[in-house]
Amino acid sequence: MFSPPLYSVLKFPLNYIITHDYNFKLTNEELIHFTVLQGDNMMFRQIRMISMNDDKFQKFVVFVDATGGYNKPKALERLVKHGFKINGETYLFSERSASMVRQSMLSFVERHIAPELDRRISMGLDFSETPTVLSKYYAYRGLNLSSAFCLPEWEPKICIVDDYENTIKDQMVEYLYDKTTEFIDKAGNKRSWTQKDVAVKKADITINCFDGAGICHPEIMRQIERKINTDEHINSCIIRAPYIKGCMHEIDYESFYAERGVTKIKDIWGQEYDVTPGSEPLMILTVSLYKGYKYFKKDGTYKDWERYWEWFRKTKSCFAIAKWNYSAERENLTTKCNYQILQNIDLEFDNFKHFADMSVDFYEKVTSDDIFYTDCFLGLMADDVNPLNHYIAALARNQEMIHEPCVKEYVHSLLDKTRDGFKCGKLWMNATFKFWVPDLVALMEWAGGLPVVGALKAGEIYTFDRRGVALGDRICERNPHISRSEHLLVSAVDNELTQKYFHGLVNCCFTSIYDINAPRLNGSDFDGDLVLVIDEPSMIPGVHTDIPITLDLEDKKTALAETDTLDNKFACTLRGLKSQIGEISNLSTVYQNKVPKTEKTKQEYLKYVSLLSVANGKEIDRAKTGCGYKIPRNIQKYGTGPKSTPYFMKYAGPYYARLHNLSKAHSNMNLLCMSLERWERGVRWHKEPAGSFDWHIMYDSEIGYDQDVFNEIEAIFLDFNKYRKNQLELEKKAKNWKLYRKELEGIMTKEEAKTYETNWQAIYNVYRNKCKLVCPDVRELANILVVLCYEKYPNKFKKFLWHMAGAGVVENIKPVPVQLPVHDSNGKYEYLGQRYSLAEPRIYEARVK
Question: How far is CA 689 from CA 694, 813, 815, in A?
């Protein structure tokens, strides 16, 4: 699966804008330090049309990292209401995608294009006087910033059908309610306090069976493949359009309806559509995908839909594809699990520790004498020679490059990261991430006016991969995972209907309309959510199937309706910056890795985790609903402080690695971590060279170099090393602000020092341009830098060679016969559940331009 085209955009930290009084000037070279890459999207496309500028540097958009902005409301209010200036150009507050809201990211657009961009994104909608739920409205507008392939001048025929709901009777659920307690304060006054608590009851749960899902004629998918110019076969994809969001799956609805005598279906307005064989291909979407249904509603007739299309064309809008399925050949059969899923699998440690067996075996093979496993680890395949970077590309031409210092350091860094991942639960499992899909037979029945029965019974799923249809018990998981009731134990089945209508849909997991599977997996739906389907029989005994299902019974609750004014926009934005997702996840991990001494305490902790599970689902949807739950004080109090964070979390990231006094309570995750630390002491890299690396294999004597050019490049090389030394010293001082305060004053503020980090990619771009001006031939440049780095200055920064002329290095390596892994179901090698043999690949070319 390839990615949408990338554009360079500017991104500034909020503190930088504040300290420069919202108005600053930067040279082009200085701007490079703030440049990042962003995938194309519908908003970028609109900006290109409005500005009539197709440059890869998207100068009309600026991103602002507003992390911590919730604690600076006055500064944020000024920014949202008035924007800021760069080099004399004013940038005004604009849209935010869902991921941007979670990451506290804001976007701003250049003032001159802002009004027209707003007109196009709003499509004539105006809530400046009519109240609406602004968080939802802004979330739908923000879909324009989702990274996606745009499909201009493509208008598929769409039939919008109503949602279908089913009530699942007598479900034992764990839910939240407001509990009020009374207490006497220090002054002796009687007071009351209300906070969320957990209760259990039997309830009838109504679900939206096809929430976010749609179907389409196979020809629609072929049209999409042609539009984005891919050879991949797409059977499921996440679609985007103004006020449209969901996941669509191809299916042969023509045959389905022909067998049942259905010739026409009706949309939600009563309009009929021909579905007989040979009729015009349709997209059949439920109302849950069409977010504009209420916004464009005036008289409740088909004219409302025509009005949408009128604005669609008037604003030159388009459809876009954000993601699609993997093919059967490329779908992973093994996937790394995570600590959130593992930490509430209820097993004795002697059984639990075996979850690491596959990972340990994997690692020991990768570090063995046999380079086959290292090639697999690096993704170097004979049947798909498409290396991730120049280090791996060099290995494709000569495997002796495994001993080159930079290549070796790169591989070692990957191995270090892999080992640390094991210790915090990133363990290989027989598992695959798949699109979460409702029973599409039931959807076709509903859309066709037939009795809704479906192809799957309660407790059943359908999925398959290149090995065949899955049968038997499976566990379904969704990230983020909090509560133990989110382990979904299901039975994978096959039948006549699934064989006929689902078997072509790769990388999908179908679930029944008779279960509350989607809501119980942290409020998931079918608009593109992924589920992890696990085939690990040893895990099943640790899954509790006899406990209440933790659910949010107020999942439809939203914020109050407001008018779209600057004041309300700022208030909505400010609320969105106070995300508790990380805090909730951490608290859950704390309580799930405490080892209570009594059953009463254990049940109390389980109750806390259930509450956190519902709160987390609320927090994830806060950008759309505007609602969240405050975490009770007692849960926060006993889940923070010294010795709260479990020991294994020290390997989860730099923040946790800096913590002290971690809890070494004998939870399964802590014990597994300590066990893997002991194992780690005995592992070693077996591919050390017998002698020193011969760097001459990277030098092409036929290319050679010009001595005058060599001298100029040498000066640039030495200048970089001097700059790098100074910059590393500056980073060191920034981390020790108190010690170096006097030196740093005038360079950066204390707030900036906390997050100061050199944008090395931007620096490399500057020096790469300098080198290119002096030596346009990247192969000659590679020769020069090889001599500088390995002969003349062997103790200086060798990676400069790879950053400046990696493609040239690869081309200069004379290809030698190489045997690389190739997928082969009968091969003698096995790696992560797949069989391989060895074959000689085509010679990899670095595509030097």
Answer: 10, 18, 20
The residues, any chain, with a CB within 8 Å of residue 831's CB and separated by 6 or more, are 362, 365, 372, 373, 376, 821
Location of structure tokens 């006993």: 638
Residue 295 · residue 207 · CB < 8 Å: no
Give every CB contact of residue 235 below 8 A, 6+ residues apart in sequence. 221, 249, 250, 324, 325, 504, 505, 506, 507, 508
- Spatial neighbors of 546 by CB under 8 A, at least 6 apart, are none
Residues facing residue 489 across a β-bridge = 475
Residue 710 token pair: 């060599």
Nearest to 132 by CA among 309, 245, 297, 305: 297
Q: Mind spelling out the 3-state secondary structure of 67-120?
A: CCHHHCHHHHHHHHHHCEEECCEEEEECCCCHHHHHCCEEEEEECCCHHHHHHH
Label the pairing between strands 460-462 and 488-492: parallel
Selection from 594, 616, 492 nearest residue 550 by Cα:
616
> What does the CA dihedral 443, 447, 449, 451 come to, rounded to 10 degrees?
0
DSSP labels for 202-244?
EEEEEEETTTTEEEE-HHHHHHHHHHHT--SPPSEEEEEETTE
8-state DSSP, 555: T
Residues for the chain: how many in total?
Answer: 849
- 597: tokens are 């001494």
User: What's the pLDDT tens digit per position in 152-177?
Assistant: 999 999 999 999 999 999 999 998 88
CB atoms within 10 A of CB 726: 10
How far apart, in whole angstroms, are the C-alpha atoms of residue 10 and residue 286?
Answer: 38
CA distance readout (Å), 471 to 322, 436, 468, 475? 31, 18, 9, 12
Give the global pTM: 0.90
State the DSSP code for 401.
G
- The C-alpha atoms of residue 449 and residue 775 are separated, in whole angstroms, by 70
Is residue 194 exposed (0-12), middle (13-18) or buried (19+ Cβ within 10 Å)?
exposed
With a CB cutoff of 8 Å and minimum separation 6, the contacts of 23 are: 84, 85
Roughly what angle, to the nearest 10 degrees, separates helices 707-735 and 778-787?
A: 70
pLDDT in tens, 724-766: 999 999 988 888 888 888 888 777 777 778 778 888 888 998 9
42-63 CB burial, b ≥16 within 10 A, e <16: bbbbbbbbbbeeeeeebbbbbb
Q: pLDDT above 70 covers what percent of the chain?
A: 98
SS3 of 378, please?
coil
Using an 8 Å Cβ cutoff, are 331 and 470 in contact? no
SS3 831: strand
Torsion 809-812-813-817 (CA) sign: positive
Is there a contact between 444 and 251 (Cβ–Cβ < 8 Å)? yes
Distance between CA 300 and CA 352 in Å, rounded?
Answer: 57
Q: Return the exposure string of 418-442: e unless at least 16 CB atoms fall within 10 Å of the residue's CB, then b.
A: bbbbbbbbbbbbbbbbbbbbbbbbb
Pairing of strands 468-469, 464-465: antiparallel
pLDDT at 845: 65
For 818, residues 6+ apart whose C-beta sits below 8 A from its C-beta are 396, 397, 398, 399, 840, 841
Helices (H) and strands (E) in the chain, counts: 32, 32
Residue at 304: amino acid letter: D
Distance, in Å, from the CA atom of 657 to the CA atom of 272, rounded to the nearest integer, reads 61
Scanning 705-826, the segments in alpha helix (DSSP H) are 707-735, 741-744, 750-754, 760-774, 778-787, 799-812
Distances (CA, A) of 255 to 85, 237, 263, 463: 59, 22, 11, 22
The answer to whether the bond into 480 is cis (omega within 30° of 0) is yes
Q: How far apart are CA 36 and CA 661, in angstroms?
A: 37
Q: Over the stretch 353-396, which tens digit does the pLDDT of each residue have? A: 999 999 999 999 999 888 899 999 998 888 776 788 999 999 98
